[in-house]
Amino acid sequence: MLSEKFVEDYWIKKIKSLLETNPGQMSESEYVIVLQAILFRAPCKLLIFGIGKDSEMWQEANKGGLTVFLEHNAEWIQFFRNAITIQISYRTSLLEKWKYKPIDNIPLWINDTPWDIVLVDAPEGYESHLPGRLSSIKVASVVCKNGVVFVHDMQRDNEKDFTMRYLGQPTKIIESLGVWRRNRLQNFKNRCFSEIKLFMKIVGFK
Asked: What's residue 7's pLDDT?
């Protein structure tokens, strides 16, 4: 059976609200799998690349845990002040796809923390002049050795190539969301993948 706290109306309304007010981002099934992982592990150490309108939900789901957002856009940091946000700077460019350059301004404690869940949803990577996610995916592979890594926008070739190099074959791909289970986790059960369809039926998603 699914966790009662996950199927409660409160979280269902959160997801549906995001789908209505924040179109073009994650789909309902993608929100479900990330939210479910956080709730199963909370309170945990959660690291997220990128800030968006869904950031409040991620932080709230990890109540009592450590949630940190790494963001390069100062406007988004101002938008979401009630959180631990760190402004970073990317030096990569998709024009030089495989030329790795470290991310500027990441504190040492970020690399030293054993993160339970890492969500990579930034930086932008939809045009060749943008940074792409080579650096953020590499960092995720280093700081999450015994947890779950999510990478969004896996429909793009660059994300596929970067994750294959640093994370290997995904455990699961749900639409455009890649999932990597790093080692074996006792609290993140295989059943959560098989129960996605059941959850969608329960909450009325199509």
From this structure: 55
pLDDT at 8: 65
The domain locations on the chain are 43-188
Helix ranges restricted to H, the chain? 4-7, 9-21, 28-41, 55-61, 74-79, 108-112, 134-143, 157-166, 191-194, 196-203
Q: Determine how many CB atoms are found less than 10 A away from the CB of residue 94.
A: 17
Q: Is 114 exposed, middle or buried (0-12, 13-18, 19+ CB in 10 A)?
A: exposed
- Helices within 117-156 (DSSP H only): 134-143
Q: What is the mean pLDDT of each run of 10 residues along the chain (206 residues)?
A: 59 92 92 93 97 95 97 91 93 96 96 97 95 97 96 97 97 96 57 46 41
Q: Which CATH architecture has domain 43-188?
A: 3-Layer(aba) Sandwich (3.40)
Task: Look at residues 54, 92, 57 and name the one whose alpha carbon lies nearest to residue 72.
Answer: 92
Residues 6+ apart with CB under 8 A from 96: none
Pick from 172, 106, 176, 178: which is nearest to 142 by CA?
A: 106
Report phi then psi at 83, rounded to 5.
Answer: -160, 170
Verify cis geometry, omega within 30 degrees of 0, for the bond prior to 102.
no
- For residue 83, the one-letter residue type is A
